Amino acid sequence: MRINLPFHKTILPVFCFWVLVLFLGFSTQVQATHIRAGEITAQSDTTLPVANRNPLRYFFKMVQYADVNSAADNPTAILSFGDGTSQEVERADHRKITPDTWRNVYYFEHTYSGPGTFRLVYYEVNRSKNVVNMTQSDQQDFVLTTFITIDVFEPINHTPQLLVPPIDVATSGQLYVHNPGAFDADGDSLAFRLYPSQQNLTDDRDNPIIQDVFGFQWPNNFGGTALPNPPGGPPTFSINAVTGQITWNTPGRLGDYNVAFFVEEWRDGRKIGEVLRDMQIRVLPTDNQPPRLSEKELCVIAGTAIQEAVTVTDPDPGNIITIQAYSGILPPATFRQLNNNNGQFNWQTQCEDVREKPYQVVFRAVDNAAVPLADIKPWNIRVIGPSPTGFTAAIEGGGIRLNWDSYQCQGAEKLYIYRKEGESDFVPQICETGVPASTGFVRIGEVNKDQVTFYDNGIAGGLKRGQTYCYTIYAAWLAPGNGESLAAVPACVILPDNVPMLTNVSVTETSTTTGKNLVKWTRPRDGVTGLTPPLQYRLSRVEGQVGPVAAFAQIYQSGNLNDTTFTDTNLNTEEKAYTYKIELFHSPGGTAALVDTASPGSSVRLTTASENKAITLNWTYRVPWNNTARKHLIYRQIGNAFILIDSVDATINGGTYVDRGTYNNQPLVENQEYCYYVTTKGRYSNPRIPYLLLNNSQISCTSFEDVTAPCPPVLSINELICEQLTAQTPIQNVLTWVPNVTPPCGSDIAYYTIYYKASPESEYDSIATTPANVTTYTHGNLTSFAGCYVVTATDAAGNESEVSNEGCKDNCFYFSLPNIFTPNGDNKNDVFRPDDKRPSFIKSTKFTVFNRWGGKLYESTSDPMINWRGVDNGGSRVPDGVYYYQAEVEFFTLDPKNTRKTYKGWVEIVR
Q: Is the confidence at residue 20, as pLDDT, over 70?
């Protein structure tokens, strides 16, 4: 209930005092402290049939836990819906759940005017008294909030439901655990984070201002020692962001503690809601020890009947233990305690239970000691879809036909089809849903769950003849559950190779005009029965590494089927790659007709570049065979011969190798040319072509040059000690730096360059260089210390490093005026000016003099050093006496925000 006492700012203090006395006496009985914990949950319209549901209509349930021993009561509650409206309802349920706790339930309903995000707020006076970790808890409001997102495109949503009551008992020196038993009916992802308990402070217009309660501290700030063995270290209080398990290791001071936490609801990577629960933990003295529950992680295929034992032990013999289970799947799942130490959990899973996130069942075991203590353990149970059955792959025309049985789980929405080029040893493991990328399979399509066939013709490029292809499929559920099934055991087939197949495109001579490529192919493996002679090979070529739809031009033909080799000449193999295509023709009716075309293949293209104190080789290809079967060979010219210097793995598209001069421990020599070629090793996944396919790149040469700059040095600047400055102190900055030559940084530094700027907004300018053996520099003959510096290192090849760290120095501000001067013409103390015992770095001064009545006598901005001779603005001498001044001084400084300072004081003129 709320008590609103009017208050007017003009009430006399004495009257205020008596009102306060009366209020305090009255509030102890009517406004008694009582609220211990609670939360607000929500769900969208559940009207049936579904077509009649209103996505803007929401139902809310608030559960409040109150102190049985309090005289206060809340027969009604008001909930603010976050859109400027609120509703007051009567309490729907009022029951005692522990000897000291009431559980109050309130139901609300609201229809919003449109989609959006809304924060619901409930607040009530007052919290239960004597909460240890906040100030005067009985004088602070109790606040609950819940955040929802209304999206008409996703009309169904339930906020997380919290099934385990937020009232619990702990004891000093023993580990305390709790779990809220959060459940999301839609299968959304849940995340947990701790939050301080909240209160409401209304503004002048009675609008709620939600903020942390006064004096909030986390429970671990009140003593305790962390476990386990050996005990020691500071206590901790934390929540597992995934499971919601709260751990207090360990409680210290006795008393009641309140903490809050958010349960966030995430769908497709965005947060769509959150529930704030405020819970209370009562720390009581006892020698009792809590029981210990078993813990399990389960993963089952939909349709599996789960029958699991729940066991508990108690270090204190004779205690009677009660085991409880909390979960959104109870029912249809069931739990039954069999005896003091055992229970049985059963769940017949179904296809409708498949989802990405595991279900959580929270088991709580509590003993019956005078101070009962509990253990709580969450079990995570993941339900996955069964693998599709009857999956087969068969040749059909120029492609492959996949067939499977109708998928047994009607809740699935899609079937995803995957293909791998080459053989597969993938066998789905239990709980390994979908198709992991590590298997080498690539998704090539998807179909509706009711479809039972798919035809793969390789899309634009076609499938490769003579190649082995493996396929698998799995079922997928859509959001919010996003469940998946096990994949089907892969089915593999080999496409017939009744056409010639390329096996080699190897560069045999590197030249811009007389280059040569050796091209080889196979005879048709499945024979030529049924073809009309004469038969003919036709070989075509195109520049570059391209696909089958490029503009190929025929370069060779042969009617001899045993002729499977051709050397292509007069090519620019030094600068270009080439792709070849072999075709088989026969002559029905005397006219040449294409039998079929195998996939084209390219030559290996190698590039070399000198970089990072090494030579980097990159090579590419586009071929129908698999070039990842064996390591590729790296050859470098040494003397008049090419020598194998290394071998490396490659990818389906190419490879990379970095020559750092490690072969035979012979470093690369600067300005020397190095030449290389690469031999690739590949094979078809076809048992009828079992041999390795070796193909050479062209020869690529590059000059080894040092193009790697040294690392930047570490710069420091001498410190300016203002108290030690005198007028004779030279105005200069001394720079010192340390070269960074730790590997992989180079040590071949030739010289250093010093850069300077006078202000932060200026650009750096080079002011000096020093040889490599000089690592200090004095920047002298300055009018100001203010400025910034960086240093770079440059090697003998002219590579300049990045700039060093920035070293900056600012001027000292020194401005001191005397309290007396004697402008009598004796050239001694004739002018009023700042003390010049130290450098002052004054840029300008606006100097103003006032008489003792505040009248302005003199003002000048022309002289930074003031040099006032005791005259007024007209040049007339002012009488002897005391005058007041204001000096607005602008200094030469590095910080533009700190350039101006104002000094005020007095001065006496004596002539």
A: no
Mean pLDDT (the chain, rounded):
87
Q: By the 8 A CB rule, do 658 and 634 touch?
A: no
Long-range contacts of 842-846 (CB under 8 A, 24+ apart): 842/815, 842/889, 842/890, 842/891, 842/892, 843/890, 843/891, 843/892, 843/899, 844/889, 844/890, 845/887, 845/888, 845/889, 845/890, 846/887, 846/888
Q: Which two tokens stand for residue 579?
A: 């792709």
Q: Please give the torsion angle defined by the CA atoms of residues 81, 86, 88 and 94, in that order, rounded to the nearest 10 degrees.
A: 20
| 107's tokens | 């139901």
CB atoms within 10 A of CB 820: 12
Nearest to 455 by CA among 420, 417, 492: 417
What are the DSSP calls for 146-203, one per residue? EEEEE-TTS---BPPEE-S-SEEEE-TTS-EEE---EE-TT--EEEEEEE--EEE---
Q: How far apart are CA 527 and CA 523, in angstroms?
A: 8
| Closest to 185 measured CA to CA, from 158, 162, 164 | 158
Encode pLDDT of 290-349 as tens digits: 999 988 999 999 999 999 999 999 998 889 999 999 998 989 999 999 999 999 999 999
Cα–Cα distance for residue pair 726/398, rounded to 1 Å: 95
Nearest to 310 by CA among 290, 295, 298: 295
* DSSP reduced 3-state for 723: helix
Omega before 600 within 30 of 0, i.e. cis: no
In angstroms, the CA 47 to CA 61 distance is 17
Number of alpha helices (DSSP H) and beta strands (DSSP E) in the chain: 1, 62
Nearest CA to 740 among 711, 708, 717, 769? 711
Q: What backbone torsions phi and psi does residue 40 show, to the nearest 5 degrees?
A: -120, 130
Q: Give the pLDDT confidence of 620-636 residue by residue, as tens digits.
A: 999 989 899 899 999 99
CA–CA distance, 275 with 273 (Å, rounded to integer): 7
- Provide DSSP, 734-796: EEEEE---STTS---EEEEEEEEESSTTSPPEEEEEEETT--EEEE-S-S-S-EEEEEEEEET
Angle formed at CA 491 by CA 485 and CA 497, multiple of 5 degrees: 150
User: CB-side exposure of 269: number of CA atoms within 13 Å?
Assistant: 0
Average pLDDT over residues 785-789: 93
Nearest CA-CA partner of 485 in 302, 291, 680: 302
CA–CA dist 794, 424 (Å, integer): 54
pLDDT category of residue 1 using cuts at 50, 70 and 90:
very low
Phi, psi of 29 (to 5 degrees): -110, -40
Cis peptide before 744 (omega within 30 of 0): yes
Nearest-CA neighbor of 830 among 856, 858, 866? 866
Mean pLDDT for the stretch of residues 39-61:
86
Is the CB of residue 552 less than 8 Å from the CB of residue 598?
no
Q: With a cut of 70, say whether residue 838 has pLDDT above it.
A: yes
